[in-house]
């Protein structure tokens, strides 16, 4: 009987991680810890961050997304041009080589929620549909953390879009 309950405890422990993991899958692509930051009241844009691991044998691409909270969702990169950090849309999407993990994080690759319908508040769950070239689409939720440092990297967006 004791052996059985120990076995049961082990089974519960093994099952637990998947119950708590904040991860998603689309085909061979694993999406880890999607999050965003709360935005100031007048913000028109927000960022989206997550990790993408390609467990498949072939390359894939994150080509875009959509969300009910914003007019558009784009995939952006940050680059230093003439000493100035600028962002631009990755028109061909973000490459996901087989066997590799690509991070979308503040200061690097990121999702850009453009034309926010309302500011993002801390603790909110922001629904986003990610679209991959081969793996198709998957619905994820971005967990909104606290308002970060002023998002100066997104300052140039106002007039551009
Ligand atoms: Cu951006």
TrEMBL record:
InterPro entries: LpqE-like, Lxx211020-like, PCuAC_sf. Pfam families: PCuAC. Keywords: Signal. Residues 1-21 form the signal peptide. Gene3D superfamilies: PCu(A)C copper chaperone (2.60.40.1890). This is Copper chaperone PCu(A)C. It comes from Kaistia terrae. The lineage of its organism: Bacteria, Pseudomonadati, Pseudomonadota, Alphaproteobacteria, Hyphomicrobiales.
């Amino acid at each position: 009987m004791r052996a059985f309950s120990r076995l049961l405890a082990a089974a519960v422990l093994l099952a637990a991680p998947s119950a708590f993991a904040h991860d998603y899958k689309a085909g061979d692509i694993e999406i880890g810890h999607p999050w965003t930051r709360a935005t100031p009241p007048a913000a028109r844009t927000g960022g989206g961050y997550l990790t993408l691991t390609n467990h498949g044998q072939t390359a894939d691409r994150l080509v875009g997304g959509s969300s009910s909270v914003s007019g558009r969702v784009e995939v952006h990169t940050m680059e230093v041009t003439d000493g100035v950090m600028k962002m631009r849309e990755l028109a061909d999407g973000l490459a996901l080589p087989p066997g590799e993990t690509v991070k979308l994080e503040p200061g690097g690759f990121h999702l850009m929620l453009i034309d926010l319908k309302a500011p993002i508040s801390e603790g909110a769950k922001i629904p986003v549909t990610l679209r991959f070239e081969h793996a198709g689409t998957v619905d994820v939720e971005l967990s909104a953390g606290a308002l970060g440092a002023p998002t100066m990297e997104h300052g140039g967006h106002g007039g551009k879009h």
